[in-house]
Write a structure and sequence with these properties.
The protein has about 290 residues and is of the alpha/beta class. Helix content is about 40%, strand content about 15%. Helix 2 packs parallel to helix 4 and helix 4 runs parallel beside helix 5. The radius of gyration is 19 Å and the shape is globular. The structure holds NADP nicotinamide-adenine-dinucleotide phosphate (NAP).
Length: about 290
């Protein structure tokens, strides 16, 4: 019989594990966070709006880290049901952050907390959310950042493959083209798309290095929606990629932030790798089959 002590790894809880980012965080943990036992929870495990379920789970498992990815993530859904958006994005986040008051807690916010009038945003720029989704995220950020042990990530558009194949903007674009739809893509709406593999690596590095606070997390290059469409169309020559260019000046509907490019120097100074450009990631995918 070996007298070697058995090491018990601390438990990390990842919410939203059936979604794009939560799923990838769990999948990539063995590579970037081998010291943690990672448990990804989905809505099938716990409905986070049911406080009794959350409390019971918490007291049974006693996690040492929480990465909170779950949320009402589609802006249109939040506009239709603002009460649910506030419940899930603000109140559930606040409840989890309170349970996690003595341990690291990482909350996923969004670049949409800005109004897009300035671009190249730094973490100290004032927020000005333009829709319910963004308002709830900005409100949750304030709650989370009240605890100096806690972290807020503001990701840009995140590319990759989700378990349900319909969550990332890359998947949505592909689906639209496969269905023969024509997309109107704005030449004056700017984003810094980032592959989910870089998101997970960056977040696990922040955790391993014990960094708390507010961080922007985006790809190294800014593109208009039109440019993003052109890059994707070139990546999938087999598809009949139908798109027309448009301008926010002609758009009728809820206000859309024009330039949400993010300055990521703060997180970049912590990371051991360069945040990639979406263009280079797509080009590399030609070899690997991604996306
Ligand atoms: N992906 C992006 O481009 C992007 C950009 C900026 C910010 N973010 C933020 O980053 C975080 C992760 O994004 P994501 O793209 O991974 O989102 P996602 O794919 O929509 O995943 C969100 C997950 O939350 C789960 N969820 C919703 N309500 C729940 C409830 N009551 N109980 C338990 N789970 C519940 C959903 O479960 P179901 O699958 O059952 O619905 C889903 O799996 C989100 O907070 C999002 O706002 C994402």
């Amino acid at each position: 019989m070996s007298d070697r002590p058995t090491t018990v790894r601390p438990l990390a809880l990842v919410t939203g594990a059936a979604g794009l980012i939560g799923h990838a965080l769990v999948a990539d943990a063995s590579r970037w966070a081998p010291d943690w036992e990672v448990w990804g929870v989905t809505r099938d495990d716990i409905d986070l709006t049911q406080i009794d379920q959350v409390r019971a789970f918490w007291h049974n498992r006693r996690p040492q880290l929480v990465i909170h990815c779950a949320g009402l993530t589609r802006p249109a859904h939040c506009e239709r049901d603002p009460a649910l958006a506030r419940r899930l994005n603000v109140e559930v986040t606040a409840y989890l952050a309170e349970l996690a008051r003595e341990i690291p807690f990482v909350f996923f916010s969004t670049d949409l907390v800005f109004d897009g009038k300035k671009g190249h945003y730094v973490e100290t720029d004032p927020v000005n959310p333009l829709n319910v989704y963004a308002e709830t995220k900005a409100a949750a950020e304030r709650v989370v950042l009240a605890n100096p042990k806690h972290t807020v990530i503001r990701p840009s558009l995140t590319a990759g493959r989700s378990p349900t194949r319909d969550r990332s903007f890359v998947e949505e674009t592909r689906q639209a083209w496969e269905a023969g739809r024509t997309l109107t893509l704005f030449t004056d709406e700017v984003r810094c798309p980032i592959p989910v593999s870089a998101t997970t690596r960056a977040v696990w590095e922040l955790v391993q290095k014990g960094r708390a606070g507010l961080y922007h997390l985006a790809g190294a290059e800014a593109f208009s929606r039109w440019e993003i469409g052109q890059l994707l169309a070139r990546r999938w020559p087999e598809l009949d990629a139908k798109m027309v260019s448009g301008s926010l000046c002609d758009y009728v509907g809820p206000t859309r932030p024009p330039d949400l490019s993010l300055n990521c120097e703060k997180i970049q100074s912590v990371l051991s790798f360069r945040l990639p450009s979406f263009r280079n990631w797509l080009a590399a995918g030609v070899a690997t089959g991604e996306p």
